[in-house]
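Chapter review: from sequence to fold.
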Amino acid sequence: MTTDKKLILTFGIISFLLLITLLFKLTGVPGGMILSGLFLGGMMIVGIILGCLILSGLLRLIIKRTSFLTILFITTSISFLAFHYQLYSPTLKIKVPNGYKGEVNLVLSNVDDNILIVDSNGTGYLNEWTFNKAYSRPIVEQMDGKNLDEYLIGFSPSTFFGKGKSCCVAKREIQSLSFKIGTQPHLKDEYFQSKSLTEIVDKNLAIFTKLDQYSTVSETSTK
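The token string follows.
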């Protein structure tokens, strides 16, 4: 078998496996508006493949000793791997006080290490990287070790964390990721609510961001 055929086989398999795992991962990615994460991600994959076809055609004009398929499978493998990284979400392990029920807010903050042992108000703190990356359902336990997964209430069927903003401190707002711990297992009737965090967060840890065009003073919104 020639070197070129070996490369086609190797990167063809890698590209195929990355594509399958991407499609599987997209089933758990939050969507937007009425579109699912799988649909939006599928559109991205189609765009990636089309872009790789064009790029491979251009590279083939320069690297004439390498076949078009070899270049295509290499570029798609690299692109799919990069997309995997973009979709990565850490699974947070959160500790709450024994018997705690109600809203849990993970605030965007300046900490280096996430503070995932929430206080009596249900408030924890995330660094910027984790805040921007986290979307998967967390592991939530009481301090005594009891797992609360069956009590968790997410923001919507397609998005677990609600992304909220609490306004205002010196005309700046607090951003948070939120979910709720219900009073009963597998509870679906309790709706998701938001509360202002301006009076309960540690202001030395929280990052205060500029108001956007949709925020007004004394307004708290979750979207």
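Two observations follow directly from the output. The radius of gyration is 22 Å. Residues 37-62 form the longest helix (26 residues).
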